[in-house]
Amino acid sequence: MVQKSRGQRSKSRYKMQTKRHATPNDFLKTFDVGQTVHVTMQPNIKSQGYSYIQFHGRTGKIVEKRGNAYIVQIRDGNAQKKLILEPVHLNAEKKE
User: Fold this and answer.
1) Number of domains forming the structure of the chain
2) Residue 95 — left, alpha, or beta (φ > 0 → left; ψ -120 to 50 → alpha)?
3) pLDDT tens digits for the chain (96 residues)?
4) 62: containing domain
5) DSSP tag of 49
6) For labelling, which of 1, 13, 35, 52 has a CA lying 20 to 30 Å from the CA of 59?
């Protein structure tokens, strides 16, 4: 028997579908350190700053800015993890 592939995008057929295309404004978003953001991966943008699919839909805080990207600290179980993401994959949390 052949062993099933378990690549980075396995089991992501429905999670990573989108009808929305990224606009130039999505690449130019700015965030402040300490701001809460949602990680929403854009599957049609596969450049640098694209993390694993398991972090899609998570919420975290911006720790620092590194070049064009941001370092976002999220909680994965009991562990604190840091992701390096471009602004096209981040959405600001709306305040009510």
Assistant:
1) 1
2) beta
3) 899 888 877 877 787 788 888 889 988 999 999 999 999 888 888 666 677 888 989 999 999 999 999 999 999 999 999 999 999 999 998 876
4) 33-92
5) S
6) 13
